[in-house]
Design a protein that fits this description.
The protein starts with a strand and ends with a helix. It is globular and about 80 Å long. It has 371 residues and is α+β, with helices and mostly antiparallel strands. It has a 7-stranded antiparallel beta sheet. It contains 9 helices and 13 strands. Helix 2 crosses helix 3, helix 4 runs antiparallel to helix 5 and helix 5 packs across helix 8. Helices cover 43% and strands 19% of the residues.
Length: 371
């Protein structure tokens, strides 16, 4: 299995300049290879493999543009490989055609590979290729048996730098003797993250809503400044810092909640929802959907359960979980305004609780069928 630890790093002026050059060089190489592949296609020339494209960078581009020799060679190689991955997804119809990266819009990051001890994580610093020792906040260390694979250095919009260290390790989780117990069902709840089959509500801190006034004020100040000026850049970083705090708080909450569920239950049943479709303007609750981070929550839950040898079961999104009575199985059509489920058998319960119970039962049925 793979696991990454992300650390905050504090480069000095010289290291910061080298990072800026590396970000730009990776973007430049990416765009050059993309233009070459497009020109080859129009000329009827075969698509270059990732290895041939990397040879072109080393044998041609580095001679024409000597500044490419000043940065980490693995960073350029990984930029070429990232483009090829985009092409492969396009060929398999899993994504759109790769686009050129723009200087002020593209994400500032690059990945370098571990070889011959060129990456070292210590208590107060991280050693990286070309950058040498860079001050870091190392809040935790990986076990000695883990194999270091690569490091990804990135810069956020607010100017802060981070280094994500990727490790590989052996892990063979054994499934419990009673894999179907205990089990819980989760139904998505717009104003509470989820409602579970035990009658609990996940809760939604609504971090974006709480900071929306402060963020709007920062963005109004940004609008009144001249783009490209020093004051504009300073204000842009202030607005980006608010966004980063919102994202970090949300992620922290989702990590804690997903870890709690993964520790307590052997099987978690959820609906396989398309969160991007649910957040569009047609539903009128896009901000609430995105502020919940339910899709990120399910991703965290999936890999944490897999690490513990447990299961996440995804129920078909068209399964009528909110319309079936969890007591007698009768089917009743409800509108979105109906929040209480009432059945002829005498059952009266919260709509979301009823759906969570049905999701749990359907998930267990699917799991038994697969077994």
């Amino acid at each position: 299995m793979n696991r990454a630890y992300k650390y905050r790093i504090y480069p000095n002026k010289e290291q910061e300049q080298l990072l800026f050059s590396t970000f730009g060089s990776c973007r430049f190489v990416y765009n050059q290879i993309l233009a070459l592949q497009a020109a080859n296609y129009k000329a009827g020339i075969k698509h270059l493999s990732r290895f041939d494209a990397n040879k072109y960078v080393n044998n041609t581009l580095k001679k024409e543009y000597p500044f490419l020799k000043e940065v980490d060679k693995f960073a350029l190689t990984n930029a070429v490989y990232a483009l090829e991955n985009g092409y492969q997804k396009f060929f398999k119809k899993q994504g759109g055609y790769p686009r050129f990266k723009k200087k002020h819009r593209a994400k500032r990051s690059y990945t370098t590979n571990f070889t011959n001890g060129n990456i070292v994580v210590e208590e107060t610093y991280i050693k990286l290729p070309k950058l040498k020792k860079i001050k870091a906040s190392v809040h935790r260390r990986a076990p000695e048996k883990w194999k270091l694979k690569s490091a990804t250095i990135s810069q956020e919009r607010d100017g802060s730098y981070y280094c994500s260290i990727l490790y590989e390790f052996e892990h063979n989780p054994a499934l419990s003797e009673e894999p179907l117990f205990p089990t819980i069902g989760l139904d998505y709840k717009s104003d509470g993250l989820y409602a579970d089959s035990e009658g609990n509500i996940g809760g939604s801190p609504k971090y974006y809503r709480k900071q929306s006034a402060k963020l709007a004020k920062a963005q109004r100040k940004l609008k009144g400044k001249t783009a490209g000026s020093n004051n504009y850049d300073k204000q842009q970083k202030k607005a980006a810092k608010i966004h980063r705090k919102i994202a970090n708080r949300r992620k922290d909450y989702l990590h804690k909640e997903s870890t709690r569920i993964a520790n307590c239950y052997s099987v978690v049943c959820v609906e396989d929802l398309n969160m991007r479709a649910m957040s569009n303007k047609g539903f009128g609750n896009g901000k609430a959907t995105l502020d919940n981070g339910y899709g990120m929550f399910l991703t965290m839950l999936e890999y944490k359960l897999a690490y513990r040898g447990k299961r996440l079961v995804k129920v078909d999104p068209w399964f009528p979980s909110s319309q079936i009575c969890s007591c007698c199985g009768a089917l009743h059509k409800l509108s979105l305004a109906d929040r209480i489920y009432r059945c002829g058998c005498g059952a009266v319960m919260d709509r979301d609780y009823n759906a969570a119970v049905n999701i749990r039962d359907e998930g267990l049925r699917l799991l038994k069928e697969c077994a």
